Amino acid sequence: MDIKKIAPWNWFKDEESTHSGNLPINRTEPGYQAPMAQLHEEVERLFDRLLDSFGRHNPPNPDTPSTLAGRGMLLRPNVDIATTADAYSITVEAPGVDEENIHLELVDNTLTIRGEKKLQAESREAEFYRIERRYGAFQRVLSLPEDTDCDNIDAQFSNGVLTITLPRKALPKSRGKVIDIRRVA
User: Fold this and answer.
1) Hey, which family's this protein in (predicted)?
2) Per-residue pLDDT, 17
């Protein structure tokens, strides 16, 4: 079976290598969580349920994975990538993010999508029982295929969805060469 028919291009091959230590990024695909982080979060959730059953009304521990996610430390927008004969289309979910807080940068054949979902002013008098919304900086790094026309990339932002269209250019056909076989006497 030819694996290239299933996944012809590894769009995320540079994402981990360009990950900087000062911007935490969840390095996994949507819906996946590192096993140790998943175990830690589940244990914390079990203890929270246990303590809640005894009437605890304290806010959650600020260093649990679920609370860190709520503060934006694990924020990573979902990305859909599609292709046609003429173009690639990348769709990035960014609900609650203002257009001026999203930045695209193209260096060589690597497209970096950066942004920040800023915390809205909340009442300081309110006592929160649970915070599930995520805030903070995010980044996705995409390795573009060699047939991408990097000079004509278009980006549009509407209703919390960033759509990036990358036209495809025709690659030069490799020229075959017939090699004569000499007869050795």
Assistant:
1) Belongs to the small heat shock protein (HSP20) family.
2) 60
| Terminal Cα distance for the chain, rounded | 43
CATH number of this structure's domain 9-167:
2.60.40.790
Which of 93, 91, 138 has its CA nearest to residue 117?
A: 138
Task: Note whether 105 and 71 are within 8 A (CB).
Answer: no
> Mean pLDDT score of the chain, rounded to an integer?
76
Q: Is residue 149 within 8 Å of 168, Cβ to Cβ? A: yes
Ranges of the chain with pLDDT below 50: 1-3, 5, 20-30, 63-74
Domain limits of the chain?
Answer: 9-167
Q: Where are the beta strands (DSSP E) in the chain?
A: 79-83, 87-93, 102-107, 110-117, 136-143, 154-158, 161-167
Cα–Cα distance, 48 to 151 (Å, whole number): 52
The residues, any chain, with a CB within 8 Å of residue 90's CB and separated by 6 or more, are 79, 80, 81, 111, 142, 163, 164, 165, 166
Residues 6+ apart with CB under 8 A from 13: 143
Report if pTM > 0.85: no
Q: Which residue bears the tokens 């007869």?
A: 183
Amino acid (1-letter code) at residue 156: Q
